[in-house]
Amino acid sequence: MALAVVLNTSVNVHGQMLEFAERTWEGYYLLRTDPVAPPCDPNQDIEQALERKLREQEEQADDEFDLLASEPLPPEVIRQSLVAAQEECRFRYRRYENAVERITPVVRVFRTIEQGIAELGDIRMKIAGVLFAVLVLLCAGTALTRRHHISLRPAITKLDFRVSAFAQLLAFGILFTSMTSFQGDVLSSGIKVNSGQKVLLWVWIIGFGSAALTCLYQMLKLPAEAEQGGNVANALLSVPLYAIMTIISGGYFLLAGHTSGLGIYINQMMEMAALMLNVALYVLIGMLLKRTDMAQKVFDALRPLNLRPEMLAVVAVALSAIPTAYTGGSGIFVIAVGSLVYLEVRRAGARRQLALAATAMSGSLGVVLRPCLLVVIVAALNNEVTTDQLFGWGVKVFMLTTALFAFYAFITSKKETAGNSSSGINLAAFLPALKPLIPYVLLIAGTLFAYALLLDAYLDEFSAPVILPVLLVVILAYERLTARVGGENSGRAPEKNGEESKPTVFSTLKSSTAESTVHIGALLLLMGTTMTIGGVIERAELMQMLPTEFGSVWMAMLVLITILVLIGMIMDPYGAVLLVSVTIAGIAYKAGIDPIHFWMVTLVAFELGYLSPPVALNHLLTRQVVGEEEIRLSKLEVEGESFWYRNEKILLPLVTMATALVIVAFGPLVYQLYQ
Hints:
Strand content: under 5%
Helix content: over 70%
Distance between the termini: 51 Å
Largest sheet: none
Structural class: mainly alpha
Shape: globular
């Protein structure tokens, strides 16, 4: 990941170096390489050259069989041509000699560095695919060895662990077989395959084979904490989602006689390797954010407002949209800060079910805001829309979903919590609580200004994955420095100073990277295997079953949003975007749905699917960060309550996003109807 940051930053650095060089040494492009002397003679004798040209012209005229010979030129014309050529030669020599004189030792040192950085940019383009494949396999392998892949329930009993390991062994065996078959097809196709592509195929094969052997070992060597007993139903729920999707898609391709099918679709991820590497960087950003005190201090600043539990839940969800947009996806933010959101909403007096709903929703509203990576991928795959258009409408969708969440949270509030009076806003405590946030504002502004001044790079959807890790490292360094200075000034012994016990920046980076590795492996492998599900849908021509003509745009929208929600329920949004781009999008445009309107509907539908069973990934991640004990207590807390309160953690996000989807889908159509 550090290599990805360095390689991406090298492009900005190289651009600034070229601009600096051009200002310092005008015409620097002539100095980047040692000039070569012109092959002409600047001191040529014009009269001798003229006589030679005239003789050649006479010899050609004597050849009576040369039917294409041109008419002889007058001597004066030839002389003028020779004089002009000599002037051009002298100009080229003057430029050559000038360049030689200007290539000083300083220029040589500078151009060596500049060309080295330029080579980093070239390397970035050449190895993006291999780098991404290695990253996926290393991180997925780490998640595998730590048994951290995403499943509907954690493995607890020995049966759970054995069934999970067997399913993963089967999945990696299918992937290994398919990629081996794909390699054979590629090498025997007669198409020239470069060394990079060959290396990439071997990386996949070795990686999948090694993972299969690891799964075999895990079947035989169970963890010491595994409990006795268990049943098959629970064991099947403990199988990671990526394994289930791989077995389903792999089984389809094997039965269809298309053994290399999975390998083809997995390899297709390489076409978007640069964007997918950004997903990994966004996970790192989330883990770094988790280790800063920023989120805690934001909640500390809100505490003097004495907000009702429902209001704090709304504020937490709304504020979470900003870091969600900057961490690239809803699941990443839930992993990073979800536990803090849950604890703060609970501290305000909220029931557990409401706190769990707010935690799951905290990663959902920001996916339509700048600079979310999902929107960037949509724009990259569809020329009909731009990021500016989508982000512009995304702000309106964000405001709508926030308002709806507030509406449903308040109308379903319990009397005992609604009646929990607060002592009102405590301005005397609120203003001092804002003071700790001032250094963060200054650090963020200073870092962004430095990037703009030194590298001409501004924080947007393209530069965010590179700038934000550096920004968070700066914040971590500030926090560790102030903690150390505070400890020294307090006069307390280091072991008694809580702030002094914070790990160093290096230790924090190490732990962030280690945690990121696990989450990256789980997310990217899930993304890759959901793409194979998309391949099954595409190859089985299921989308061809959709009618090409609808009775009206209303019917088209109803059918499409149903399909989009179903896709979102079973697929990762990144993989789903690829599928929708090549299948459903064209149908929507043909039915008369505006491309921007369609993609805003798609994004909201995906988030609704992300919160919906049977997968409900945001809820799975929420359970992971708050712990199984809190989930158990949340169920005990609502025993004997109505259906809504027993399932509020699921129903509140679902009702909010479903209402938003209906409004986003049909609201513009109603508006157009009355225009």
